[in-house]
C-alpha cells in the first residue's frame, strides 16, 4: 500500500532540490536515509524529514505490519516549481534588475517492494 508525503513552499530553487531527489529515486528507504543523512546540502535535510514523514504515514496506514519486515522503497519523487517572489536589485545608471526568488513543492511516494514482486510472478504464468 502506498504512502504519500508532500512538502510545499520550500525556499530553494527546484533545480537544487531535483539534484537530491534524483539521487534517492527508486532506492530502499534505509539506503536513502543513510545517503541523505551524510549529504552536506541544505535540501537533503528537508528531503530526509519528508522521507521520515512518508514512513510515518505508511505506518499509520498499515498498523499491523512492521517496517522491518516490509521492504519499503521510494516509488516516486518529483519536484515542481512553487511560487516565485520577485524583488528589484539596483543596477548601474539608475536601472533595476529583477531578482526571482524561487520555491518548490516536493511529493514523495513510498511502496512495498514485495507487492511488485508478486505482480511480476503473476504475469509470468
SSE topology sketch:
Elements: E1 3-10, H1 14-24, H2 29-37, H3 42-61, E2 72-90, E3 96-112, H4 113-124
Antiparallel strand pairs: 1-3, 2-3
Explained architecture:
The protein is 42% helix and 35% strand. The mean pLDDT is 91. 20% of the residues are buried. Helix 2 (29-37) packs antiparallel against helix 3 (42-61). The chain contains four helices and three strands. It has helices spanning 14-24, 29-37, 42-61, 113-124; strands spanning 3-10, 72-90, 96-112. The protein is of the alpha+beta class and 125 residues long. A three-stranded antiparallel sheet has the order 1-3-2. It has one domain (3-124): Alpha-Beta Complex (Ribosomal Protein L22, Chain A), CATH 3.90.470.
Give a count of the beta strands, DSSP E runs of length 2 or more.
3
Radius of gyration from the alpha-carbon trace, in angstroms: 19 Å
CATH topology: the name is Ribosomal Protein L22, Chain A
CATH homologous group name: Ribosomal protein L22/L17
Task: Summarize it.
The protein has 125 residues and is an alpha+beta fold. The chain has helices spanning 14-24, 29-37, 42-61, 113-124, and strands spanning 3-10, 72-90, 96-112.
